[in-house]
Amino acid sequence: MALLNMAKAINLALFEAMDRDDKVVVMGEDVGPDEGVFRITEGLYSKFGEKRVLDTPLAESGIIGTAIGMAIYGMKPVCEIQFSGFDYYNYHQLECHAARFRNRTRGRLTVPLVMRAPYGGGIRALEHHSESREAIYAHTPGLKVVIPSGPRNARALLHSAIQDPDPVIYYEPKAIYRLFKEEVPETMETLPIGQSNVVQQGKEITLISYGASLRATMEAAEMLEEEDGVKPEIIDILTISPLDSACIIESIKKTGRAVVVHEGPRTCGLGAEVVARIVEAAMLYLEAPIRRVTGFDTPIPYFSKERFYLPDAERIVAACRETLAF
Question: Would you name the residues annotated as active-site residues?
Answer without folding.
Answer: 129
